[in-house]
Amino acid sequence: MKTVQDLVAAAKGRIREIDHAELDAMRAKGAPLIDVREPGEFAQGRIPGAVNIPRGVLEFEIDGHPAVNGIKDPALSHRNAPVILSCRSGARSALAAAALKELGFAEPVSLAGGFMGWTNAGKPVEG
After folding, report:
1. How far is CA 7 from CA 34, 38, 54, 105, in A?
2. Where on the phi/psi map is residue 8: left (φ > 0), alpha (ψ -120 to 50), or beta?
3. Cα–Cα distance for residue pair 37/85, rounded to 1 Å
4. Residue 87 a catalytic site member
5. Where does 15-108 have alpha helices with state H?
6. CA-wise closest residue to 36 among 79, 98, 78
7. pLDDT of res. 69
8. What is the mean pLDDT of residues 111-123?
9. pLDDT tens digits, one per residue of 93-108
């Protein structure tokens, strides 16, 4: 039997995690930041500019959400562009990045340490 930690570890083996500096660099180039926490968590504080698409509906909402849809072409060419995923600690975002990779997204990445790591580093917060 597998544990959730096993699932997260397997997901992290299939995706790329980024640090705060790389997040800033990717955002400067236009990569969207999707926070996959629940709306209540998101409302309590978030990384500036993050868009909330909860993990439970991510796969259903990702193609229709204006944060990623039509960046290059309305015909899903946004799947070739980087997408940054964040959560509380980096576990849900790793699972989310692995799911998007399975859906054909070329470069879904997860923020290592998530929102907790961001705030612990003294980075700015909205909300």
Report:
1. 21, 20, 18, 20
2. alpha
3. 10
4. yes
5. 20-28, 39-44, 58-61, 91-102
6. 98
7. 58
8. 97
9. 999 999 999 999 999 9
